[in-house]
Design brief:
The complex is a heterodimer of chains A (231) and B (490). By secondary structure, chain A is an alpha/beta fold. Chain A contains six helices and eleven strands. In chain B, a hairpin with an 8-residue loop joins strand 2 and strand 3. Classes of the chains: A alpha/beta (231), B alpha+beta (490).
């Protein structure tokens, strides 16, 4: 073999360097730096405090409807950035697509339910299906006006947990509620913000950064209370 | 070289195609005839002297075990489409010559010496689709057609003149009057006819003699009326009686899918959508499109989608006909990004989506997209996992304010104004003084159309209570107030 052929091809070197930069950027963006069992929410204050949602388990968000909508937007941005699909099971058909950029909605399956019991049935099917890695069950709007929040027995959550365990932990469930209602949630996030009309004119990133959280994580049969955190 | 694929007794063969457990003797009757006149009969029925033109009663009297089938134009149409598809796989130019007959222009196809094998392949394929046919090859379309009438499944004619000489004169299909004269003359074969002096034969039989001679000698030249292949694959079946359960429908749909997916796979295409049409007893139709999230040719996936839908379907009338149409496309060739994820089991997801639609309705499942209008809250739902929509990557602009959650339909509310601004709300869900009101935000549109709209919106904060504050969006349309949605409710 002639000696010249041992010299690296400059074009290949450039491509290799570019690939290394891409991989490093992906790692720095958060996708690789976290443990495999958490799901980043895209909300900096949550991700820095607890890493994200517990993958393969039931997570619960408790707070006002405005805070829940901000968390949903953060999840949509994260899904769009990372290339994941997610499902929104909308118990009260309250989601308004015009409030979000169209590009954020490309990876979202929206299921418009008319009552909580229907939403539970839909979520059950999606958990069993196991194709969509994140399922958001939005029960916050149910009960706000004319849509009663009834018909969700506590055994529902245990059934979901068993289904997700038997499915190999590929699906993560996030329940948005205004009061704690999920028994056995792997992670419960409490948001204590109350929003004023001034919040209607501020950038959403600033609003998300202003969210104050308390979290409660289950490890085995014990609950670990987290301290209040904010951005 | 030209080829012809012919299905003998085509209308009867099409009607028999998806029937199970038929007796040996079968005849086709015309439902529009007053006494159900026999149109065609198979060989076993013909052996019992059941012939076209008999009434149904006469046919049953001659052959007590005879099964009468009704003619079905939709099944004939589907069978003709199947013949054409079979032909397009062999020849670029195909003519739909007549019902049950297609002619192939094979002059640009170099298969010299292998025509018999090609013909046997066509027969095997049609047999798997439930059709028995004859295939003929010849140097002209007429010779190829005549080659299908000699009683052999596949006949290759190299020398047209020698082939025709031994045929009965009836294979040339003379006019009845000319056929009777030739019979009286003792002319029974084509060779006998060709030995007649041409001029004298024409003087006695007229132009028919010239036509028969040109056909027998292969001098008829015509341009094939070539048809283009369609993009839609369909099968249909008409029931003789209304269907009361889903079993017969599912049985047929499974057979349809087996047949259609085999045809689609042979063309290296995939199925992107299905259309199910049920013809009901009162003449109306039930139509239902199915979008396939991940284009496929897997019969199980497609069948489960139909099965799930039929499980929950309630119809006002019994179905008397079913049609399944598949829309196909070339397989997706878009390569994903390095970090882009797809769904794990697209077929299973398609099945799940069909079940979700059965629960919440067709308009309740999909991917939302803002509509091209300024009307607040207007959106469209598109098919989930639409690769075309995903390909349109656009930068995401920053957003402002809390996202609104809508109330559908917006509940009415009584609003007390003070200096033109909302000051007090009264409704079953929200009542009390308004501490702050932002607005009005006025919108209007479609004023150039027949359904113009306009509204005035306000963002209001109810006076804080021990439970927390409440931010609402109100709207006023034609003087009537309603709560459009909530920004923040504790």
């Amino acid at each position: 073999m002639p000696p010249d052929s041992l010299a690296p091809d400059p074009l290949k070197v450039l491509r290799f360097e570019a690939l290394k930069k891409t991989l490093a950027a992906a790692g720095n963006s958060g996708a690789r730096s976290r443990p495999a069992e958490v799901w980043p929410t895209g909300c900096p204050s949550v991700d820095e405090a607890v890493g994200g949602l517990r993958k393969g388990g039931i997570n619960e968000f408790c707070g006002s409807t405005g805070s829940g909508a901000l968390l949903l937007e953060a999840l949509l941005r994260e899904a769009d950035r990372a290339g994941w699909y997610l499902a929104l099971v909308d118990a009260a058909d309250a989601f308004d697509p015009t409030q979000y950029a169209g590009a954020l909605l490309r990876r979202m399956l929206w299921v418009r339910c008319q009552e909580a019991r229907q939403a539970v049935r839909v979520a059950d099917l999606l958990v069993r299906d196991g194709n969509l890695p994140l399922i958001v069950l939005d029960l916050q709007a149910a009960g706000t006006a004319g849509v009663p929040l009834r018909g969700v027995p506590s055994s529902t959550w245990h059934r979901y947990a068993r289904l997700m365990e038997s499915g190999g932990g590929l699906t993560t469930l996030l329940v948005l509620s205004r009061r704690p209602m999920v028994e056995g949630a792997a992670l419960r996030l409490h948001c204590e913000n109350r929003w004023s009309p001034e919040g209607l004119g501020e950038p959403r990133e600033a609003l998300a950064a202003a969210m104050r959280w308390r979290f409660r994580e289950r490890s085995g049969n014990r609950w670990a209370e987290g301290a209040e955190c904010s951005a | 070289m030209f080829g012809v694929i012919r299905v003998p007794d085509f209308a009867l063969a099409a009607a028999m195609r998806w029937q199970e457990g038929l007796p040996p003797a079968v005849a086709l009757v015309d439902p529009s005839a007053p006494r159900g006149g026999v149109l065609e009969a198979n060989a076993e029925a013909a052996r019992h002297r059941v012939r076209p033109g008999l009434t149904s009663a006469q046919a049953l009297a001659r052959c007590p075990g005879l099964r009468l089938l009704l003619r079905s134009p939709v099944q004939e149409e589907a069978a003709q489409a199947l013949l054409l598809e079979c032909a397009w796989r062999i020849a670029p130019g195909v003519e739909s010559t007549a019902p049950g007959v297609v002619t192939l222009d094979l002059r640009s196809v170099s298969r010299a010496g292998a025509w018999r094998r090609v013909g046997e392949g066509v027969l095997d394929e049609l047999r798997t689709q439930g059709l028995e046919a004859c295939v003929g090859f010849g140097p002209s379309p007429d010779f190829a057609f005549l080659a299908t009438r000699v009683g052999e499944p596949v006949r290759v004619v190299e020398d047209g003149g020698a082939f025709c000489a031994g045929l009965p004169i009836a294979t040339l299909e003379p006019e009845p009057e000319a056929a009777a004269i030739l019979h009286d003359w003792g002319i029974h074969t084509v060779a006998d006819f060709l030995r007649l002096p041409p001029t004298q034969a024409t003087e006695r039989l007229g132009a028919e003699a010239t036509r028969l001679r040109r056909r027998a000698t292969g001098r008829t030249r015509r341009v094939l009326r070539v048809v283009e292949p369609p993009e839609v694959f369909a099968e249909a079946f008409d029931f003789e009686h209304g269907v009361e359960t889903t079993e017969p429908l599912l049985f047929l749909l499974r057979r349809f899918l087996d047949s259609l997916t085999a045809r689609v796979t042979a063309l290296h295409r995939v199925i992107t959508a299905m259309g199910l049409t049920l013809r009901l007893d009162d003449g109306s139709r039930y139509e239902r499109p199915f979008a396939i999230p991940a284009p496929t040719t897997a019969v199980e996936v497609l069948f489960r989608t139909l099965d799930t839908h039929l499980e929950t379907l309630r119809l006002p009338q019994q179905p008397v006909g079913v049609r399944l149409e598949l829309t196909t496309a070339h397989p997706q060739t878009r390569q994903r990004d390095l970090f882009e994820r797809g769904v794990r089991d697209p077929g299973g997801l398609g099945f799940t989506l069909a079940r979700l639609q059965a629960i919440v309705g067709e308009a309740g499942v999909g991917t939302p997209q803002p509509a091209e209008t300024h009307r607040p809250g207007a959106f469209t739902l598109v098919r989930f996992c639409d690769e075309a929509a995903l390909a349109k990557g656009r930068p995401v602009p920053p957003a402002f304010g809390l996202p609104l959650r809508r109330l559908r339909p917006p509940p009415p509310v009584r609003v007390k104004l003070h200096e033109g601004r909302p000051a007090w709300l009264a409704s079953p869900d929200w009542s009390g003084p308004v501490s702050r009101a932002l607005g009005p935000y006025r919108y209007s549109g479609d004023w150039w159309d027949r359904s113009p709209w306009s509204l005035e919106e306000w963002d209001v904060e109810l006076a804080p209570s021990p439970g927390g504050s409440t931010l609402l969006r109100l709207a006023r349309r034609d003087g009537h107030w309603s709560v459009e949605g909530t920004y923040d409710v504790c």
